[in-house]
Amino acid sequence: MNYIKAIAKKSPFSIYIWPLISCFLYVSLFFSGCVPEKNNKKDSLVIYQEKLTNYKTRQGIDSEDPNQPLAILRPAASNEITLPEINIAIDPNTGKKVVELTLEEVIKRTLSNSPEIRVVSFDPSISNLDIIKATSEFDVTAFGDLNYENNDNPENSIYQSGQSNARTIDAGIKQKLITGAEWSLTYAFTRNWDDLAGRVYSSRYEPILSFQLRQPLLRNAWENLNLAGIDIARLNYLIAMLGFRQKAEDITTKAISYYWQLVQAKQNIEIYKSLLKQTEETLSKVQGRREIDASEVQIQQAQAYVKSRQAALIQAQKQVLDQQDAIIRLISDSKLNLLEEINITPVSQLSFENTELDINKLLETTIQKNPVIQQARIGIEIAKINIRIAQNQKMPRLDLVTSLRTQDIDNSPEDAFRHMNSTDYVSYGVGLSLEYPLGNRNRNAELMQRRFARRKADVNLENIMDQAAQLTKEVARRVETDYLEIEKQRAASEAARLHLKVLEESEIIRERLTPEFMLLKLQAQEFLANAQIAEIRAIADYNIAIAELSRITGTILELHLLVPTTVENSDTPEVITETDIINENSNTNTPSQDDLVPIEMN
């Protein structure tokens, strides 16, 4: 600023020009710093996503220990997301490790630790950095050059120099503005020498201070176009965030499904055990009547049924172990992992309360909150921006070019710089630069491509909305059908139980144990077991269908990211049942994502 005041005293011209340039530089630097470089909005989903990216990596990833090749399967013992430690007990009867888990505990630990969600959690952070990269286009750049040149040429005239050398140093700053303008401020200092006899100074110093500005007026002009890259980067960040949310919803639904399937498998084991016990009792009775009226055929028949039901029990036990491993993989806890043989005891009970569904409200919720539909909508916004860019690029290039320069020359650097301050030698220029591509086929084709891409994005949204609407109605019908099936399977189970009871009571008063009666009794036992298994399956399918419906409508995280409310004077949190999800879908005052409280992680 002292320099500006000094030259303003010497040149009336500089009184207006250089202060204006100084103000322009201050303003441009200020507004370039006002371009937001990242998303500062922190709702519950963003906080949850960022915490997952800070999760501690397993030790086996960084350094593999040849003595412990399976260490990579053990999750890290501590990380940024902390939950109450899992309480693992020892079964006094079997000596095996046992852990009791509620559905909400499984969901919270899955959301906190699941590697499947963690993989996708990095995508929004990576996309957020693309916003910073886009804003860096408007950063101020410093530049400079240092050159030395020595010439020794043959002379053929007294007006030509034979020997000369030049030393040049220049430095400056430049920047692109959000209007598309590019400016540069350069200070150059040159020391020249030559052997020309007519020179006033054979050795001379020449300082130059210059300012240049090029402002596009048509192509690449104005803020609406030059901020398009930042707008696209922000929209891509939202797409990545929605992709993360979609994965979290998918894994949450999977955890719910695995949990209810484990409950179903556990109850199936009890049914198969009861069936096997009944069959073994029947075999024992038949063998006891060997000397009375039981034939070898009847004994072998009962033994065959025993073996068959033992095999069914083995398969049921395998199903339990498979479901436990599936839940353990999702939970990914340091104490509850695939290296440990732990028996999971589900605490939450299957629910089969009837729920009335409003299809229209479900469809409205799906259209508003389904992450896939939201991603498609953002794709349309990106297509609109690309059309705007292509339309601008199709225009001719017309630039306003201005320059201003002050300089001086003397035989000493001090005098040269002092005389330059007087601004006796000021040069300036202003002009227009025009470029018009004849034919312009490249940019016309680009514009047509962008318009086709926009139409494709529109059709893609229509297709996705139709698919989501169909799936919503299909799963809603599945919920209703599963509930009706529960009633029928329960009635069938009760009928089978009464049928077996009648057979068992009639067995006491029968005079003779016939093969037909034995077969009928064994089949009645199996029918009752199958009816009970079908009833449990229908109830589990009903609960899984409710979770699936919440996933499609995009509301499942709005329940399971909430901090559970605790009952007063009790350490047991209030369990949110899957029926609540349907009630939430029917509520027109569904809380927005911004109103959610993140899962309790500290």
> How would you characterize the largest beta sheet?
6 strands, antiparallel
By CATH, the superfamily of the domain at 47-57 and 74-113 and 231-377 and 458-595 comes out as Outer membrane efflux proteins (OEP)
CATH architecture grouping of the domain at 47-57 and 74-113 and 231-377 and 458-595 = Up-down Bundle
Backbone CA Rg:
40 Å
List strands and helices in order, with pairings:
Elements: H1 2-10, H2 12-33, H3 44-53, H4 59-62, E1 88-90, E2 97-101, H5 103-113, H6 115-135, E3 141-152, E4 163-176, E5 182-194, E6 203-216, H7 223-226, H8 228-288, H9 296-331, E7 342-346, H10 359-369, H11 371-393, E8 397-407, H12 413-420, E9 426-435, H13 441-509, H14 515-553, H15 556-560, H16 578-585
Parallel strand pairs: 2-7
Antiparallel strand pairs: 1-2, 3-4, 4-5, 5-6, 6-8, 8-9
Helix pairs in contact: 1-2, 3-6, 5-8, 6-8, 8-9, 8-11, 8-14, 9-14, 10-13, 11-13, 13-14, 14-16
Which keywords apply here?
alpha+beta, 6-stranded antiparallel beta sheet, 3-stranded mixed beta sheet, disordered C terminus
Task: Describe this protein's structure.
The protein is α+β, with helices and mostly antiparallel strands and 602 residues long. It has a domain at 47-57 and 74-113 and 231-377 and 458-595: Outer membrane efflux proteins (OEP) (Up-down Bundle). It is 57% helix and 14% strand. The protein has helices spanning 2-10, 12-33, 44-53, 59-62, 103-113, 115-135, 223-226, 228-288, 296-331, 359-369, 371-393, 413-420, 441-509, 515-553, 556-560, 578-585; strands spanning 88-90, 97-101, 141-152, 163-176, 182-194, 203-216, 342-346, 397-407, 426-435. The strands form 2 sheets. The protein has a 6-stranded antiparallel sheet. Helix 8 (228-288) packs antiparallel against helix 11 (371-393) and helix 13 (441-509) packs antiparallel against helix 14 (515-553). The longest helix is centred in the C-terminal third of the chain and has 69 residues, at 441-509. Residues 1-15 and 562-602 have low confidence and may be disordered.
